[in-house]
Write a structure and sequence with these properties.
By secondary structure, the chain is an alpha/beta fold. It is 38% helix and 18% strand. It has one domain: Aldolase class I (TIM Barrel), CATH 3.20.20.70. Bound molecules: D-xylitol-5-phosphate and zinc ion (ZN). The site of D-xylitol-5-phosphate has 22 residues, from strand 2, strand 8 and helix 7.
Length: 230
């Protein structure tokens, strides 16, 4: 599995968004992580589709859109039109049938469907959808805010998700989001994560390029070591 680093724009300077995107590109980002929050599913509001549309116009990086919203299914067409590549919905945001319908609609619209588990949701919640997604996001903080501390107690869940995916959908990626930096990335990569959202530790590092390179090197070494140990 290729290691991917996804800087989270939530930690960027919104008054200079185009420059911030250039910085992420120059730092070697693989994806740009866009956190959409509706103030209902999470207690915070971030940015929405007009902003995503503008971002897509000025970058070739795939947009990894994390929908922290209570009705993600309403917005699939607008996400596709806005230039999203990956769309992640939370397993507990809507009823299971609606989760399944939303993931199918994301794929039909030409994007990659992904499923997120917040800290209270067990690995087994992926089972009804695991065959139909391109990525599972295991949250390593409670969703809603950047700059929180990494929850190391989510690592058994990452391992369990990897084991379930190896049975059902081995090509499926595992993303972690929240509190990822050059130390915590090792734990997550060792547990089987391959895609790393990095907000504070990338955009707010003294040198974003150095920070992203170090995080990538740490992740690659730990990912290889993790698999050797299993
Ligand atoms: C939190 C968001 C994250 C956030 C991560 O709810 O989903 O993507 O931007 O920020 P850091 O890396 O600062 O924890
Ligand atoms: Zn996120």
């Amino acid at each position: 599995m290729k290691i991917r680093i996804a800087p989270s724009l939530l930690a960027a300077d919104f008054t200079h968004l185009a420059d911030e995107i250039r910085r992420a590109e120059a730092a070697g980002a693989d994806l740009l992580h866009c956190d959409v929050m509706d103030g209902v599913y999470v207690p915070n509001i971030s940015f929405g589709f007009p902003v995503i549309r503008q971002i897509a116009k000025i970058t070739a990086l795939p947009l990894d859109v994390h929908m922290m919203t209570s009705c993600p299914g309403k917005y699939i067409n607008v996400l596709a039109e806005s230039g999203a590549s990956i769309v992640t919905v939370h397993s507990d945001a809507v009823e299971p049938e609606e989760v399944a319908r939303t993931l199918a609609a994301i794929r039909e619209a030409g994007m990659i469907p992904a499923l997120a588990l917040r800290p209270g949701c067990p690995a087994e919640d992926i089972l009804p959808y695991a065959a139909d997604v391109g990525m599972i996001l295991v949250m390593t903080v409670e969703p809603g805010f950047g700059g929180q501390s990494f929850m190391a107690d989510m690592m058994p869940k990452v391992r369990r998700v990897r084991a379930l995916l190896d049975e059902i959908n081995p090509a499926c990626a595992i993303e972690v989001d929240g509190g990822i930096g050059d130390k915590t990335v090792r734990e997550a990569a060792c547990a089987g994560a391959d895609t790393f959202v990095v907000g504070t530790a990338s955009f707010r590092a003294p040198d974003m390029g150095e920070a992203v390179s170090l995080i990538r090197e740490s992740a690659e070494a730990a990912y290889r070591a993790g698999w050797q140990n299993t």
